[in-house]
Amino acid sequence: xxxxxxxxxxxxxxxxxxxxxxxxxxxxxxxxxxxxxxxxxxxxxxxxxxxxxxxxxxxxxxxxxxxxxxxxxxxxxxxxxxxxxxxxxxxxxxxxxxxxxxxxxxxxxxxxxxxxxxxxxxxxxxxxxxxxxxxxxxxxxxxxxxxxxxxxxxxxxxxxxxxxxxxxxxxxxxxxxxxxxxxxxxxxxxxxxxxxxxxxxxxxxxxxxxxxxxxxxxxxxxxxxxxxxxxxxxxxxxxxxxxxxxxxxxxxxxxxxxxxxxxxxxxxxxxxxxxxxxxxxxxxxxxxxxxxxxxxxxxxxxxxxxxxxxxxxxxxxxxxxxxxxxxxxxxxxxxxxxxxxxxxxxxxxxxxxxxxxxxxxxxxxxxxxxxxxxxxxxxxxxxxxxxxxxxxxxxxxxxxxxxxxxxxxxxxxxxxxxxxxxxxxxxxxxxxxxxxxxxxxxxxxxxxxxxxxxxxxxxxxxxxxxxxxxxxxxxxxxxxxxxxxxxxxxxxxxxxxxxxxxxxxxxxxxxxxxxxxxxxxxxxxxxxxxx
Length: 531
What we know:
This protein is an alpha+beta fold. It has helices spanning 3-12, 64-76, 207-224, 269-288, 334-341, 348-359, 363-370, 373-386, 395-413, 424-435, 441-452, 458-465, 473-486, 488-495, 502-512, 519-530, and strands at residues 13-24, 80-81, 84-85, 88-91, 101-104, 111-120, 134-137, 149-163, 167-171, 183-187, 194-200, 236-246, 261-266, 296-301, 306-312, 322-323, 330-331. The protein folds into three domains: 3-341, no CATH class; 348-465, no CATH class; 473-530, Arc Repressor Mutant, subunit A (Orthogonal Bundle), CATH 1.10.10. The chain is 37% helix and 20% strand.
């Protein structure tokens, strides 16, 4: 979907978007209502029992840890925690649940009325025209090229707990869908896995806001340690409800909302953004052609980059919810909730603020470092080690290298920070050599590359390659004097006002010393001799 077309549509219409984020609680070792293990993959239908297969006489027993994790997620997103709650039966007749119903929650979820504040910067900010409820954010320190940004609050309607369904595999169709398939298989290994669903308020207005919201929620869940949040393996899945309305009616309340469509099969953050962008434009074109948008569920085809009708949208009444008769309601105490709250770790926003205050990092650096748990842990370990050295390695120096050469190495190799051969202690060892003037910053880049291909320390690489930086004043003065004596014409020009020639002399000295002379000392000595 061309950005220009989306931008054109968004000048005429405001999108109204709500997300449903389904997250498997993979930190639980067993399923929601039975003792079968929670694992990804494996031989189909080997991790099942009478309970998750819904055999007659089997009774569910709720997973206490899954309930605690859900409450923890609610506390991390500023939700109210219900002290009285219960499960319901959600009836439907798809073959991915053999008992023809799913144990879920309806009107009494564990968590409700929360919020997440997101920051939109750079090109993503251009997707949205200003409206009430957004606050500008300081973009001068964000790494942007002059594009301002904003922050906005996205409400969390509810977080409820349910059991996941089995996995359908359709064979013979061109897109792996039931339409056109010659046969369909079902694997019940996933059926019964604890599944937490967060439903947002329809406060999202652009595809970029939706992507940022989902990314931030994933980071919160990873920080809590309740799920691996793998979109590739399906442990985190995002569905989106989207409608559009003329900008003249924006802010007029729910009665002015357009007819919404639900989009499924967006298994990456890019797919979430692109699927919404396509659907917003599609709905605008339907209206422009005199048609009406239908309430339906649509499938995102990443290959064709379009949505297509999947089925007519269901309503709550279609599921015939009623209280689960095989389980009693839950009654919690304030003390129990307080005990869960005490287990909350430092959340992403708090960590970002601490990095800025404690380490003096600009907003952009702190944001990037805290967007990945592994990168944040690597950084803090490196900073702690750097502070014990003489001279110390500054937090800003470590951040510059981690966001520069180190991040480029991770991207090129497809590694996480913890998987890199350049461990934080090896990086600090390299930077210590720069700080004490043993090598220059330019030489450090060459040493860094060598260290990736060997198990040597930075000092070992420097010694093997003979890269020790020359900081002997007398030795450097001798080279400077020879260079000046060999270039009388340039000396005359410099003293005649062409002071930019100092770079020429420095370059000649560095060339003669094979790059090993201390650059700062060379500059100082050359200038003193010429002046």
